[in-house]
């Protein structure tokens, strides 16, 4: 049965700020709290950030979606979590922000620079680097299959799991998956918005591109505050991507995530799990969310009304409520 939480009109403040530093653009980006770096056994360097007051309780580790760094539109979630005394770890996926850049496969090659399992290896490496005894995982969209792989492979360390706006299979599936395909509407909207500038130095063009991707799946016209946040977040994302050399390399995620996701590993997840889905998600049909719930023993499903494949202000409080309720299940 679907468990519905109604939206609220919660607004958010962006949790990041930036100030000038020196680099090839004559500006560098300073996050508050500051960035830190972890070099993993694989040789990959991951940029991460710790928000909130560190306690003995497990942190919340947020795993962003396709092509997204730690500056994705989740500022309101961070503020709401830290206000409830949770501390939060964010990080840049490889090929985003200030994390390692990987070479593009030769033109015409069908090979991927890496796999979605490699992205899960990065998260596991970061958990070990930080010597975390336990962690709450929250995965958005492509971050979902990364999160459940980590939960399946590190059952003793993952205290809870939240799978947000995601799918058990992604774009590809087997006949035995018995799921409807991704919605064509959302894929068309993303395709229309996906026209990146060819000049990596074209500041305003890139900001407008990021804003277009951010808002193209909105189910309601964005408020003035949401447009302002989108502009700030897009400026920050571009400046950090330009600084890190990941303006174009983030598109490697398309090949990494374009295969069928490891649905079978969901059966290995043993921690309290909540699936959070938008009732109007334009990419993943509701059946995908129900399948996630059914594939994880004891998982719960929360459907956000008037929300699609997006993170508008109005959905952030009910989303955090669902995440916190699920984390509390681990403590009982």
TrEMBL record:
Indicate the segments forming the AB hydrolase-1 domain, all copies. 58-311
| InterPro entries named in the record | AB_hydrolase, AB_hydrolase_1, AB_hydrolase_fold
Please list every transmembrane segment annotated in the UniProt record, as residue ranges: none
Q: Which GO terms describe its biological process?
A: glycerolipid catabolic process
The entry lists its GO molecular-function terms as: triacylglycerol lipase activity
Q: Which domain of life is it from?
A: Eukaryota
Q: What is this protein called?
A: AB hydrolase-1 domain-containing protein
Originating organism: [Torrubiella] hemipterigena
